[in-house]
Specification:
Layout lengths: L11 E3 L7 E5 L3 H10 L4 E13 L4 E14 L6 E16 L21 E3 L3 E3 H12 L22 H8 L9
Amino acid sequence: MNDLPPLPYSEPLRLHHIGAGVQRRLKPDAEAIKRIVRALDLQALDMFEVDINLVPTVSGWRLDGRVMADAVQTCGLTLEPLPVRIDRRFSIQMVEATEHEADENAEIDLELDDDSADQIEGGSLDLGQYAVEQLALSLDPFPRKPGAVFEQPPEPGEISPFAVLKGLRPTDGSGEG
């Protein structure tokens, strides 16, 4: 059972269709734009295009591209709209995933190497997923309008329960207490 939400934008490509290379310009339709806006928590996405060039290499494939977008994020301090223009190039190495026999006693070896190639499984890849991923990576995770400053609220005085009791003590000098 697959509990993952559907991808906001999908452009599947079978590996055997790549041949000597594939060039595409991806422009999601209005419904896909709405899903991308929701998925990336944007106020708006007025323009979104991704140029993709996928070519075979000795060990797999290389996906070179350029993501261009006019988006509107929300300032994390003022909650005001924050227009963002994105024009960024990217390059991703890809290899076809190898099938390993499942061995219950075998150790699972996880490497967290940023330079490793993306693993392609099932004989296909989704260019739309890479497009949305590159847009997400281009957005500021903590958007802030120029000049917006966080002001720390004043620290409360004494917070102990004794401070509350101290406030209840009569101050008329009667010596009670």
